[in-house]
Design brief:
The protein has 152 residues and is an alpha/beta fold. The chain is built from 6 helices and 5 strands, in the order E-H-E-H-H-E-H-E-H-E-H. Strands 2-1-3-4-5 form a 5-stranded parallel beta sheet, sandwiched between helices. Strand 3, helix 4 and strand 4 form a beta-alpha-beta unit. The chain is globular.
C-alpha cells in the first residue's frame, strides 16, 4: 500500500446518495483517500452570487455571479485532485459535470465516470475520455482499492 493520501474529486449529480456510498466504502476499506466535492446544497450553489454580491433582476446575471464563485471552488479542487469521479444521473442533465470532466481531461487528470448504462450513448464522448466507466458506487470503491493498494 502507498503512503500517499489520494485526493478524489466527486463531481456531478446531487440528488442521490452515491457520494455517501463511495465515502462509506473508502472508510470501510481504510483507504488513504480524502474526498473533495462541489457545494452540494442546491439552493446555496444557485444563490451564492446574489447572496454575497447583491441581487440581480436578470437570471442570466444571477447565474453568472453564482457560477463564477462556484468555479473558484470547483477549479481549485479539480486541479488538486488525483482522480476525478463524474456521476451522471438520469433525472437531470448535468452540464456542470460534463464541464468538470472536460476540465479534468484538459489537465490530464484521470477520470472515472459513473452512470447507468441506459445513458451510455449520450455520454460516449465523456466516457471516451474516462479511464473507466462504472455503473455503481461500489465499483468505484473497487477501482480505488485496486489502484491504491493493487488488490482485487
Amino acid at each position: 500500500m502507498t503512503s500517499q493520501i489520494w485526493s478524489i474529486y466527486l463531481s456531478g449529480e446531487i440528488h442521490t446518495d452515491w457520494r455517501e456510498r463511495i465515502e462509506a466504502g473508502i472508510k470501510a476499506r481504510d483507504l488513504p483517500v480524502e474526498t473533495l466535492s462541489p457545494v452540494t446544497d442546491h439552493a446555496s450553489s444557485d444563490d451564492c452570487g446574489v447572496n454575497i454580491l447583491g441581487p440581480e433582476d436578470n437570471d442570466f446575471w444571477k447565474d453568472k455571479k453564482g457560477s463564477g464563485i462556484n468555479a473558484i471552488r470547483t477549479r481549485t479542487l479539480i486541479e488538486a485532485a488525483d482522480v476525478v469521479i463524474v456521476r451522471f444521473g438520469d433525472k437531470y442533465k448535468q452540464w456542470n459535470a460534463a464541464f468538470d470532466a472536460g476540465y479534468a481531461a484538459a489537465l490530464g487528470t484521470p477520470i472515472i465516470t459513473l452512470h447507468d448504462p441506459a445513458i451510455n450513448h449520450a455520454l460516449k464522448e465523456v466516457d471516451g475520455a474516462a479511464m473507466a466507466v462504472a455503473e455503481t458506487p461500489e465499483q468505484i470503491v473497487d477501482i480505488l482499492t485496486y489502484v491504491i493498494e493493487g488488490k482485487l
